[in-house]
Amino acid sequence: MKKIVALALALVLLAALCLGGCAKKPAEQPAETKAPETAPTAAPEPAPGTADLNTVTAGSLTVAISPDFAPMEFVDVSKTGQDQYVGFDVTLAKFIAEEMGLNLVIKPMSFDACQAAVQTGSVDMSISGYSWTTERNENFNLSDYYYAGDNETEQAIITVKEKEGALTKAEDFAGLTVGAQTASLQMSLCTSQLPETTVIKEFSDIGTAVEALRNGNIDALAVAKGNGDAIIANNDQLAFTGFEFEVAEEAENNVILLRKGADELTAKVNEILAKAYAAGYYGPWYEDAKALAGIETSEEISYDDEGNAPADEPAPEPAPTPVETISAGSLTVAISPDFAPMEFVDVSKSGQDQYVGFDVTLAKFIAEEMGLNLVVKPMSFDACQAAVQTGSVDMSISGYSWTPERNENFNLSDYYYAGDNETEQVIITVKANEGKWVKAEDFAGLTVGAQTASLQMSLCTSQLPENTVIKEFSDIGTAVEALRNGNIDALAVAKGNGDAIIANNDALAFTGFEFEVSEEAENNVILLRKGADELTARVNEILAKAYAAGYYGPWYEDAKALAGIPTSEEISYDDEGNAPAE
Prior knowledge:
Blueprint: E1 3-6, E2 60-65, E3 74-75, E4 85-86, H1 88-100, E5 103-108, H2 111-120, E6 125-130, H3 134-139, E7 140-142, H4 150-153, E8 155-160, E9 177-181, H5 185-193, E10 199-203, H6 206-214, E11 220-224, H7 225-233, E12 238-244, E13 255-259, H8 263-278, H9 282-292, E14 330-335, E15 344-345, E16 355-356, H10 358-370, E17 373-378, H11 381-390, E18 395-400, H12 404-409, E19 410-412, H13 420-423, E20 425-430, E21 447-451, H14 455-463, E22 469-473, H15 476-484, E23 490-494, H16 495-503, E24 508-514, E25 525-529, H17 533-548, H18 552-562
Parallel strand pairs: 1-22, 2-5, 2-6, 9-10, 9-11, 14-17, 14-18, 21-22, 21-23
Antiparallel strand pairs: 3-4, 6-13, 7-13, 8-11, 8-12, 15-16, 18-25, 19-25, 20-23, 20-24
Helix pairs in contact: 1-8, 10-17
């Protein structure tokens, strides 16, 4: 049996806070933040001294969030673009950006990828329900605490309704399987406080974990209390077990993660946090986030996402949902935007425009042919598949190859061709090992990374030696960082994805090894919900039209060029697949 090691951070809580770069509690912080009598009626003036702040994009504050953690940060499916991200942390991010006089750009990604993005400097900070831990204090600049109700103060475990109140002591979980999110406080609490015989199963996102609990794949799920309230409010077959973890004082509130050494930006953030605290904003923001998440704790929404009082006019009625798509007039497509040149993020853009690549161009073409508005939903690769199965998206277009398991669990489209991205499956490594490992047996005893629920994971487990350690990652970006930092020896990727990674990382190279790939796995398919036959048939018609028109080749070449792979002299088609103007 091969060893599959999931990426996790062993979080150890410290009993005392250090000074300087460590997070500090506001002086004499009360146990509960009270709501202000009235909402602020005017936008605050930008804080002095922000003009010279060094951010990754001039004039903008780029913030990473993991939008699967209601009521702290989650997606409002009635909205699109940047407006779809809501919750306490999003309101706080907007307040910080406004105080700095900057435009807020939200970058959604998995929880562990958020932390990697801060360290690599691709975002300015991450605001995503973080608690203080020793490891985070070593690897990041941490802000002062901010208070977010019982979301971090209480850490609990949820289960199915039949077991409500049945698991109240740590020893009750002996022999059970308990889920927790990768790199989270809950993962640390599970490993430190539950019995050794408890199986801890980690998930890259909360949505997939909830589905696993609903489907009986795990017995229970560790969550922050506020997050548990939101999950149960929207899943009446789930409930709290009755067990609560013991939480150290320093982990009871939240901190913002900033890059180590970003002292000026950290100081400015702390000034703004102090201002929000003094104004009493935290209580109302948290109550309103709960109400937005479907937790009946507020009679009405008293503040909007920016912290302002709402206008008098009533909210518009939601559009009726047609049979063929989940949202009237829209085609909702899940992608995992860490897989260039198939789907990735153009950091010069924001909102829906930031998602580019072959699959995004294809999604736009399909939506346009159907006369629908395209709504791209970014999430981790395995979460994309879960979203299709639960019906929260219409389909997922994310570089999928045909596999027997996918054929059983989804409606699969006809094949579409995307160059060598799926035809060739390879392994990359650091430059020093270029061409060194050309046979499967060369990887004996080495650690090879692969993305969760991917074709590459399947190929690694079936074709590499038994003593190869297969380490799985929820997203490619984190895996590439692990390779660069020497935490893994090599990384299995599609050839086209490897081209893109190496084009932007001159310290990496191909090993010289290629997997054997079956014929049915050489091209790509789109995943649709099982039974969505009418929608599948329409998709297949459109794929046939794109194939007949010869669009695939130019789209793929253009996606390579966008990803920094110099294979086209110019961009011959735009993102919608149209030829440029004369």
